[in-house]
């Protein structure tokens, strides 16, 4: 069988060879009708573009490295889905590597990625020092998602974890809760530290003393939420609400409460952070803080493509949103509702 060439596809589609080439390279936008005609002709003829030849001709590998924590995580999975969607039609493909929440494994995964001929790099959170990322950013376009990097502020896509956590705590405080237990994420993660800080600031603004006995650290995974609840009860801790640094740990915490016959929210209110797709279908549906994970993935892909094209990047603003469902309710005990804190902007950092 004769080899199908790009010229054959162009002729069948009724376009020039250069137009057909632009369709497959994704480097320049092509009119929708011509794009559709080229793709239809390619499918009919069984044409598959030669990625190696294309990269040699362009001087680019057409590969984007993506350093994540865990490809199986529902949170990171949504971000990765957004990245794939954002790269669609661009001619670029993503290569994923996971650090699995460990400093050494993340460093190894990054080393493996950088051993490939990447055109750009997207980093999702993680432990990699700012200095290392700054060095890499001098070598190739780099976008960081879910973290800040000193000196690379315009290349970072972030949400305000501090304010999001503050708003979660404020929701519980406004419901009258004063004994609020907190399951934190690992202290080595910036977003976990910011969320803990937001929780603490809310308590301080409402003149509620923090009880160290009500704080447990988890690892952002479901089993640690379950174990955290067991740790709280083994201490004899008394609380009317449980705030958790992410939804996955909240799922484990919910199981721990269920096993002890504790009703949510009748006995204890429960709130998470992330608004994973499953959170609307837990029993009861989980109150949580929504962050635009998929949209951040799309934006990361668009940002890396803009950087590759030499287009100045203006990071979009991402907002979190409190999603109130059925897992939180007012306390049953008599209480005095305290007024909101005095500052004009509650939760603003000093």
UniProtKB/TrEMBL annotation:
The keyword Iron does not apply. The keyword rRNA processing does not apply. Pfam families: LacI (PF00356), Peripla_BP_3 (PF13377). Residues 4-52 form the HTH cro/C1-type domain. Residues 4-58 form the HTH lacI-type domain. InterPro entries: Cro/C1-type_HTH, HTH_LacI, LacI/GalR-like_sensor, Lambda_DNA-bd_dom_sf, Peripla_BP_I. Keywords: DNA-binding, Repressor, Transcription, Transcription regulation. GO terms for molecular function: DNA-binding transcription factor activity; transcription cis-regulatory region binding. Residues 329-350 are annotated as: Disordered. SUPFAM superfamilies: lambda repressor-like DNA-binding domains (SSF47413), Periplasmic binding protein-like I (SSF53822). This is Putative Transcriptional regulator, LacI family. The lineage of its organism: Bacteria, Thermotogati, Deinococcota, Deinococci, Deinococcales.
